[in-house]
Amino acid sequence: MTAKWSFAGVIFLTVLAVTVSAQTSVVSIRVVEGASAINSIKLRRGHDPVVQVLDASGEPVAGATVTFLLPASGASATFGDNSLSVTVQTDTRGMAAGRGLKPNRVAGQFRIRVTTSWRGEAANATVLQTNAEPIIKSGSSKWVVIAVVVGGAAAGGAVAATRGKSSSAVPVPPGPTTPASSSIVAGTPSFGPPK
């Protein structure tokens, strides 16, 4: 602002500088859920990304527009309506979620781009997730292990039976369930009903 005045033929020029300071609010996004999540390809089960929008003082921003955007190719997912993006408004706590996330059939990492706008301010964030196929455990491998153990025990018993030709009896002291005349005899075990 400039003012001009004069006094006795002398002109004085006064320049006033007016500074208007306006505090601009900066908006930010905090990832609340879904970061580093592992989605199951086989079960088609994903982890919904959840974010919170905050103003410059760290207070939640209600009514901010938030968009979640998924990759168009490679490892990715879709939202509940089978789209690659969803736009929602934050609630009173500044929270927004990309609901219904389902992984596609491609294994690997992918990034969910999150953008927000509020009162002319914008911010963005990235949520990293991974699509993975679960490790399949086969029931037949258990049977192989059991067969090897049983076979090894049988072979060990056969070797012990052929080397120990003498029949030595080990007396067992009588007890409430053991008759007084019982003894354990080393030899080849037999299976089935008593002979």
Keywords:
195 residues; mainly beta; Immunoglobulin-like; three-stranded antiparallel beta sheet; 1 helix; 13% helix; 37% strand; elongated
Largest β-sheet summary: 5 strands, mixed
Number of helices: 1
Query: Could you tell me the radius of gyration in angstroms?
Result: 40 Å
Shape: elongated
**Structural class computed from helices and strand pairing:** mainly beta
The residue-averaged pLDDT reads 77
The CATH homologous superfamily of the domain at 28-132 is termed Immunoglobulins
Question: If you had to describe this structure to a student in words, what would you say it looks like?
Answer:
- The chain has a domain at 28-132: Immunoglobulins (Immunoglobulin-like, Sandwich), CATH 2.60.40.
- 13% of the residues lie in helices and 37% in strands.
- The protein is built from one helix and 14 strands, in the order E-E-E-E-E-E-E-E-E-E-E-E-H-E-E.
- The chain has one helix at residues 139-163; strands spanning 2-7, 10-15, 28-33, 37-40, 50-54, 65-69, 77-78, 85-89, 95-97, 102-103, 108-118, 121-132, 169-171, 183-185.
- The strands form five sheets. The chain has a five-stranded mixed sheet, with no helix packed on it. A three-stranded antiparallel sheet has the order 3-5-9, with no helix packed on it. Strands 1-2 form a two-stranded antiparallel ribbon.
- A hairpin with a 2-residue loop joins strand 1 (2-7) and strand 2 (10-15).
- The longest helix has 25 residues, at 139-163.
- The chain is elongated and about 95 Å long.
- The relative contact order is 0.15.
